[in-house]
Design a protein that fits this description.
Layout: H1 8-14, H2 21-31, H3 48-60, H4 65-75
Length: 77
Amino acid sequence: MEFQTYSLGALFQQLELDDSKGGVEKLVVNIAPVPSNQALWEAPQWTDQQADRLRQLYEEEAQWSRAFEQLELLLRA
């Protein structure tokens, strides 16, 4: 059985963020680095709604794993 995997751009859309190249770069500048001992959604720069959605997608939805891997590469120290 195949399931759809989502891109980093789709994850940005879920978080109501600008998913353009410039928007991604701006997010990285504003949030990175997130320490490796901290969950991505625990970074203080997220709104409460963004943090909750990130946590929800991470914990419940395997099809978002590729997008999370990309986000981790961008934001980790």
